[in-house]
Structures are given as C-alpha cells and as structure tokens.
C-alpha cells in the first residue's frame, strides 16, 4: 500500500501506517462471564451402566452441578448381568470420585409386572423409563436434590424424546427439575473413555426381550416404532 501511495508511513517500528480514509471497525464482542446452569445445584444422575455414565458425569460437572449417581435398573436380566453392570458402574464411580446412592434390591418382578401385555419394543421401553425415572425422582426428593436426570439420554438406541417427556412429567409430580441435555453429542467421547478405562460394554440394552431381539431379528417382541411420516414437500 505504501509503494502504491495508498497509505502514509507513520513509524517503521512498530510499523504504523495512516490511511487516507476512515475504517469502521466492528465492535469487539464482550465476553460475558456466564453463570453455568448447574452452579450451586445438587443433581441426582440415574446411571444405566458404567460406559453411559462417563460422558454424562463429565458434562454435568462442567455445567457446574454437584453430581451424585443413582443405581436402579430392575430391567436388567439376568441377575448375573445386572451384577456385572452394577460392579462396572461402581468401579467407575470410585475412579472419578462420584458419590453414589444404591438401590439395594433387585426388583426384577416389578419390571415384569409393569410391562406384561406391553412387550413390544418401544411400548415396553416407555414403561421401563418411567419405572426407573420415578424411583430416581422419589430418591432425589427424599434426599433433598434439586434436579435429576439420566444417562439414558446419551444412547442413540433409546427414545430420547420419550425419556425427556417422562422425566419432565415425573419432575413436576415430585416438585423437582428434570435436567435435559442432548448427551448424544458425547457418544463418541463415551466410547473413548469406556475403552480407555476398559469398562464392560454390554451387547444388549438390558431386558430379556432386548437380549432376544439382539440375537434374533424375527423375535416377536421386535416391532419397530411406526416410521416417520413423509415430510411434506416444500411448496
Ligand atoms: S429394551 Fe432397554 S429400555 Fe426397552 S424395555 Fe428393555 S431394557 Fe428397558
């Protein structure tokens, strides 16, 4: 610009030039010190398994929550599988210093009573979510938590919108907040941590129906949810 006479040299060090016209600079964005959504709040995190808890714990802590974990999964079948997943969740909670609340009983009969007559995939899952979220809300209220949420929100195999709706409805009934966030954004991070920590990774969701469906695509309980209606074409 100097060579072409489009600017005047003001100083060589540091190099300073003067333009013959005014330049309007965009105002700088002021960085606001934003308050984190969970700051000062105690949250009870329902944990479905160790691997799914990894990203959720990390993310909730980043959001400022004082997180405690809660174990209640009467859907997991058989008992040996339930224990294997519980032990994995326990080991990971110890690893990251997560305080835990354990539901001691294995309430498998409660799960089967709840889903009887509704065994189709999707239909039974909504019942299964409600069973676990209601227990989480009950314990959260008894122990003075402000909010609760669930690691189920991370899985692309779960119906996130249904979980959210049941969570919010349950929270209303118990006078709590249900914390919703799309944890699916952390699905690959979940995999990375689980591999790094050598956590046990199960091959089916949890119930005996899901085990059957994972092995047999013709299982009679394997009924997919109705396909999304075709989007209307833009006019
Ligand atoms: S498939 Fe998973 S969410 Fe659905 S009922 Fe079985 S354990 Fe529950």
Describe this structure in words.
There is one protein chain. The chain has 235 residues and is α/β, with parallel strands linked by helices. α1 (50-62) runs parallel beside α2 and α4 runs parallel beside α5 (160-174). It has seven helices and seven strands. β6 (147-150), α5 (160-174) and β7 form a beta-alpha-beta unit. It has helices at 50-62, 79-95, 108-115, 123-142, 160-174, 187-196, 208-215; strands spanning 8-11, 16-18, 42-46, 66-71, 100-102, 147-150, 177-178. It has one domain (42-215): HUPs (Rossmann fold). It binds iron/sulfur cluster. The site of iron/sulfur cluster has 9 residues, from α4 and α7.
Write the SSE topology.
Blueprint: E1 8-11, E2 16-18, E3 42-46, H1 50-62, E4 66-71, H2 79-95, E5 100-102, H3 108-115, H4 123-142, E6 147-150, H5 160-174, E7 177-178, H6 187-196, H7 208-215
Parallel strand pairs: 3-4, 3-6, 4-5, 6-7
Antiparallel strand pairs: 1-2
Quick summary:
The chain is α/β, with parallel strands linked by helices. It has a single domain (42-215), classed as HUPs (Rossmann fold). Helix content is 39%, strand content 11%.
Order of adjacent strands in the largest pleated sheet:
5-4-3-6-7
Helix share, percent: 25-40%
Which whole number gives the mean pLDDT? 89
Class from secondary-structure proportions: alpha/beta
CATH fold label: Rossmann fold
Beta-strand proportion: 5-15%
Query: Roughly how many Å is the radius of gyration?
Result: 26 Å
What gross morphology would you assign?
elongated
* Number of helices in the DSSP assignment: 7
Let me know the number of strands. 7
Q: Give the names of the bound compounds.
A: iron/sulfur cluster
Uncertain runs: 227-235
Tally of individual domains: 1
Assign the CATH architecture.
Answer: 3-Layer(aba) Sandwich
Query: N- to C-terminal separation?
Result: 51 Å
CATH superfamily: HUPs
Largest sheet: 5 strands, parallel
Helix and strand element order: EEEHEHEHHEHEHH
